[in-house]
Amino acid sequence: MKMITSLRQRLSHAALALGAALAAGTAFGAVNDLPGGPAVRQLDLHPPVTKIAEQQQWLHYVVLGICVVIFIAVFGVMFYSILKHRKSLGHKSANFHESVAVEIAWTIVPFIIVIFMGALATKTVVAQKDTTNADITIKATGYQWKWGYDYLKGEGEGIQFLATLDLAHREMSNSGKPSGDDYLLKVDNPVVVPVDKKVRIVTTANDVIHAWMVPSLGVKQDAIPGFVRDTWFRAEKTGDFYGQCAELCGKEHAYMPIHVKVVSQADYAKWVEGKKKEMAALADDPKKEWKLDELVARGEKVYAANCAACHRADGKGAGPIKPLDGSAIVQDADKSKQIAILLNGALNGAMPAWKSLSDTEIAAVITYTKNNWSNKTGQLVQPAEIVAARK
Question: For all residues of the chain together, what is the average pLDDT?
Fold first, then answer.
């Protein structure tokens, strides 16, 4: 009896603990639909905001309907035959050879169905590949693990920036305490485009295969190192639309989201003007001689935007990510070792190359790491040294 009572008490306590955990999890994980992104308990495709996405959704419904009809027909005949011709009803198994008519029927009918579905999809597939006469051309480059954007043609030509997962979201992921409807979808620099303009996206990659995908826009294009692919979209509504890298590209694959912000033409013109002013302010002369405190202050911002996600704000690293605080390479008087790692990467891509950063940004972030935490080396790296190392 004591054993039974003890068992009941344990089960009761376990049930209470499970109920509390479920209640806490429900409250903790409460989220709402994200306009332009995923929805709670989503079963359908994202609401389309381009003609191509609308056609893709229509094709999805048609093909799904055809498959359901085939499923019902095939399994209906199969289960009817099993139930109506079973041995318990007195039926005996037949002994017959193949039927030429049946062979022809189940070859021709599926062929016709496939041709019909292919014919329906051809117009949309051809339209997806027509990237001519674009109003704006943007190159999207996949890095481990972020996206780089270059506005190549059209209004905004010359604008360049990196889009990285918001540091607060990475910290939420590390702590296991996600929150917000846009969890792991917020970036520091969204792609901004005008509404009702044809935008061509040219994709490539710096290291491994990535894929640029935004479901609401109806676009998904692989980004392959050494190759240039392209796709396009014309958004018919303003708003924020979200996607992610759709190709497994390494351990940080979940942390390279895509955020496309579609704005009015007037707002786009203002953004272009502001972005160019911002770039001009950051376009430092690589020949300029910086003071130590200036480089450290600049490097702190570069580190927070690009390095802290992996190496952590305290420089301690995590798991396979090596710490920078107390690192022998960071503290080494031979600055070329750390410069080479930032320019070329290391550990077969585990540490990505950062050639996309400017000479001043690389010099600043190296100087910051050499003079932060316990690394009080007093060393500084000038942009001119990065220029020389690139050659």
Answer: 88
CATH number at residue 167: 2.60.40.420
The span from the CA of 120 to the CA of 134, in Å, is: 25
Q: What CATH number is given to the structural domain containing 300?
A: 1.10.760.10
Token reading at 94: 């037949």
* Domain endpoint, select from 282, 317, 336: 282
Distance, in Å, from the CA atom of 205 to the CA atom of 214, rounded to the nearest integer, reads: 17
Q: Are residues 296 and 342 in the same domain?
A: yes
Q: In 3D, which of 189, 198, 212, 240 has the Cα closest to residue 141?
A: 212
pLDDT tens readout for residues 85-129: 888 888 887 777 778 888 899 899 999 999 999 999 999 999 999
Residues in the chain: 391
Band (pLDDT 50/70/90 cuts) for residue 272 is very high
Sequence-distant (6+) residues with CB within 8 A of 66 are 113, 117
259, 282, 305: which is the final residue of a domain? 282
Domain encompassing residue 168: 136-282
Query: Do residue 231 and residue 124 come from a single domain?
Result: no
Stretch 50-59: mean pLDDT, rounded?
A: 96
What tokens appear for 19 in the block? 């109920």
Q: Does this model's pTM top 0.90? A: no
| CA 219/CA 46 separation, integer angstroms | 12
pLDDT average, residue stretch 276-292: 83
Q: How many domains does the chain have?
A: 3
The answer to which of 29-38, 39-48, 245-254, 363-372 has the lowest mean pLDDT is: 29-38
Residue 226 and residue 339 in one domain: no
